[in-house]
Amino acid sequence: MLLYRSAAWFAKGLREYTKSGYESASKDFVPDDLEVQVPGRAFMVTGGNSGIGKATAMEIAKRGGTVHLVCRDHSRAEGAKAEIIRESGNQNIFLHIVDLSLPKSVWKFVENFKQEHTLNVLINNAGCMVNKRELTEDGLEKNFATNTLGVYVLTTALIPVLEKEHDPRVITVSSGGMLVQKLNTDDPQSERTAFDGTMVYAQNKRQQVVLTERWARAHPAIHFSCMHPGWVDTPGHHPDGPHINLCAGRVCAPRSPPESSIWVRVRSAICGPQVCGCRCRASTPGWGPGCAPRPRARTRCCGWPLPPLPPPSPAAASSKTGNRRPHTCLSRGHRPHRPKRRNSLRSWKSWLGDLNSPG
Hints:
Elements: H1 2-16, H2 19-26, E1 42-46, H3 51-62, E2 66-71, H4 74-88, E3 93-97, H5 103-116, E4 121-124, H6 142-162, E5 169-173, H7 197-218, E6 223-227, H8 243-246, H9 256-266, E7 300-301, E8 304-305, H10 314-318, E9 327-329, H11 348-354
Parallel strand pairs: 1-2, 1-4, 2-3, 4-5, 5-6, 6-9
Antiparallel strand pairs: 7-8
């Protein structure tokens, strides 16, 4: 089954996660959504010294936002900071050297950070894909420690900081590779099976999505999102695995995915709606002050209907943010609420839809 799911997912990726998929999706982009300036808002970008993280930080800096780069490699991070300041003309770029695979270091960083800074948006972008089993100094499997535990500790520690600010958001850059993995709660550090770095990475990305859904339920004042950047040729690693080498010429440059991720981060219309990471303009009206639907807002995601939001609770109606629900969209073919078919003979296209099920 895993082989079948992987093959079906690869076929899906060729159609939707490559340059051609991005260009097809871009026909529905609304240019005005990115015509937003964000002076006075603070953004934290993990892994901001290269690839998608660096391109994201650059775009935020050009829009006047304060950027906190959280990186592990000091020399590369200094170079990225200097380049962002030079190209954007924005001096409000701060550098923090943190190893996300070390929970104690992350907690210590947050304790110091909240004494001196505020934060409106956290962007969990950093990640790794180690193909041979390695342990951190804490005895944790390195992929899990960085991609899952590091994201959990950083986000959890920063939630009190975010909740103090207006319109706080947390965006986690996941991966479409999670669609080939079901959540495995019995072996989070991949100790009981043969180690496969690609599948471990995919499991970590599944874990990130589940964490996002949990956080969104527990902290309704914060807008949580997950998004898939597509197949991107980044210098650090190929996040979706060795298939990148089979798609030479088809993968996206790091510049393209940040347009989708920046949309989630800065789009001014986000106020309690469903948000689709592929920028298909999917949204539903929010509840609370200022949450009127936009003229071009849809109640569909990638062509599939979204259910209406429930009536606001008394607490939500009186809050600044209203009801908020997490939304994960990992491709143009996302079917967020597709009912299961009773027919046991399913077409290949139906199986592709099933890859998006969270099971």
